Amino acid sequence: MIAGVAGEVVFTAIERFIQKHDKHLEGHTQLWVMPLYALVGVFVFEKIHYYLMDYNIFLRFCAYAFVALFCEFVAGFFDKQLTGIIPWEYKGRFSVLGYIKLTYFPFWGIMGLYFELIHNLIR
Prior knowledge:
4 helices; about 120 residues; single chain; mainly alpha; about 70% helix
């Protein structure tokens, strides 16, 4: 969970720098995502990591990205049903119903490989 939250803070700081030229490099996250990172990390990522560990890096990258987008979509959907809002509601051309943003595919693939590295170090 900590790695996910830290990754999100770094990502949002870099995204803000690129989009708004904000040199403060201030990143952020939301309390809403912490249970998501914890649950997905324990119940989804570990299982996928063990299953894919013998496959090539490109396949693992794509699998992590697809799974992350799927989990984000499902979590956004249920958040919307329970609270009436999507905490991270995406807008724009590559947004899917506000739940996911397809342009984040590479980010999620990289994060999966990053989590894999951390998981291997801890193990």
